[in-house]
Every structure is written in C-alpha cells, then in structure tokens.
Amino acid sequence: MPTKIEKDAVSGTMTTGHEWDGVKELNTPLPSWWVYTFYATIAWAAVIMLLYPSVPALSGYWKGLIGYSAREEVMQDMATARQARAATFQRIETASLADIRRNPELFTVALAGGKAAFGENCAACHGAGGQGAKGGFPSLADDTWLWGGSLSDIQQTIQYGIRNTHAESRQSAMPKFGIDGVLTNAQISDVAEFVLSLSRRSTDAASATRGAAVFAENCVSCHQENGTGNRELGAPNLTTGIWLYGGDKASIMETVRASRSGNMPAWVELDPMTIKMLAVYVHALGGGE
Questions:
Q1: Which of 85-89, 101-105, 215-219 has the lowest mean pLDDT?
Q2: Which among 288, 1, 285 is positioned nearest to 128, based on CA atoms?
Q3: What is the mean pLDDT of the chain?
C-alpha cells in the first residue's frame, strides 16, 4: 500500500505514512535528551573497548591501550593478603600449641586453616564435621579418645598416624581370639555378654558372669579390670557405649573373634604449621581435652 503522510485528526501529530488494518503510525520521535544520551553511551562503550581488554581475536584478544588485567589485579591482591598473613603464620609456626590455643588471634587463624586442611585431607574418613563413621573412623567431636585428646596427643596422631609403616606410628594389636583358637565360640559369646554389661546392656546375667572370668584372664591387660581401656595401647574404653565397629553382640563377638586392625596414614607430607592448625581445629571440634 502506498504511504501517505498526513496529520492525525485526533492527536494533531503527523503520521509516518504507514498503516496496518486501518491503524496509522504516528511520527513521535524520541526526546532529544534520550537520543543524545544513547549516542553518548555508544561513544563511551567505544572508548572502554579501546582502553580495556575487549574484542576477541583468532590469536588472543585486544588487550587495551592502558594494559589493564583483572587477573593481575587479583594476583596482586592475593600477594598483598599473603604478605599481611605472613607474620601471623610465622607466629603460628614458632608458637607452641598451648600458646596458639590461648591467643585469640592465632587461634582464629589456626581454626580457619585447620578447617580447610581437614576438608582436604581428613573429611573423607572422619566426615565434614568430624562426626566419624561406623567401620573404624572415630568421631572427633566427642570426648572419647583412643590415644588421648590433648593438643599434643592429637598432633602426634595426625603427624604419624596409627598402625602404618612409619617408625613413629602409634601401634597396637588385639589378638584374634577366635581365629587363633585362644577362645571357644561359647567363651567369645560369654565375654561379649560381659562387655555389654559394662554399659548396662546385657540380657543374660549368667553368661555375663562367665564372661567376666574370661575377660579377667584375657582382656584386662589392655582394657583394665573395669573396662575403661588404656590410651597408651589404644585400647578403647568399653563402658561408654561408643563403638567403631558396632556395639551389638554380634559385632562385639566378631571383634573378639577376628580382631580389628584399622589404620590411619601418617601425614608427614603436610608441613608442620598445617599439622599444628589441624591439631588445634580437631581439638576445638568439641572433644578436645
């Protein structure tokens, strides 16, 4: 349809000459201030593209006239932050564990560093919050410890581990009373019943009484007469109701029959400061002594 420019009878505004189904388009241009602002933003964008990295190319990208790099800025900020923390880290490296625990500034930094290191190295076995897991991964958030829960005890365990090949590793071995034929199945059942009685869960008093004699003859050298264990040997306290491999009778019988030999690697590849921060963090999880 040919265009026809005319004045709209209703609004008094000239039309563009375009018409669709009887609807005519009015020629109402944008305000001058808006148009000039739009042109200014285009010009500003062109300036920014020239000054800063912008247009990609086959062999790289336009790096800008002023040579700005966000990556370099971040790297500089990180270097500044590392330099600011260097003095604190040096103090942590030279301070004793007790001094770190008493100093609020060092303690805060050690907690943060220890938490990060724990997530990277320990959480896979002990859980993100140190809650542990059935099957030989002890909880680090309670107050029950196999080898002691002081800062130095925890540091020793982290650094050298348990039952591994490192010369300084903590070592202990429970006899395989059933496999080695030291105890009969009946005796194992009775001693398991006695162990249950130590946490008041026995249901067979006669069996527990017989088991007490078996326990006294075979187990007290490690677990003590009252079953409270021996941290020097890593012998667990049997009165707490806390179990690594299950505390039902069948699980206890299997432990007596075949023993358990869970191990923890030595983390000697970690630097001493990281081990210190890990020890402080684990100690602070809730069960440190």
A1: 85-89
A2: 285
A3: 92
Contact present, 238 and 223 (Cβ < 8 Å) = yes
- Does position 22 have pLDDT exceeding 90, yes or no? no
The Cα 176–Cα 167 span in angstroms is 24
Strand partners, 284: none
Round the CA-based radius of gyration of the chain to a whole number and report it: 37
Strands (E), the chain: 15-20, 23-26, 56-57, 60-61
**CB distance 283 to 143 below 8 Å:** no
- Mean pLDDT (whole number) for 87-113: 92
Question: Which of 82-86, 103-107, 211-215, 271-275 has the weakest average pLDDT?
Answer: 82-86
Of 269, 265, 271, 280, nearest to 122 by C-alpha is: 265
Could you count the other beta carbons within 10 Å of the beta carbon of residue 213? 13
Find where tokens 């206890």 sit: 252
Cβ proximity of 265 and 137 under 8 Å: no
Helices 185-198 and 249-258 cross at an angle (nearest 10°) of 120
Q: Which residues contact 50 (CB under 8 A, 6 or more apart)?
A: 64, 65
**Amino acid at site 112:** A
**Residue of 192, 176, 191, 173 whose CA lies nearest to 233:** 173
CA distance 266 to 84: 31
Inter-residue contact 46 to 62 (CB < 8 Å): no
Domains along the sequence of the chain with CATH: 74-168+265-284 (1.10.760.10), 185-258 (1.10.760.10)
Residue 2: the pLDDT is 56
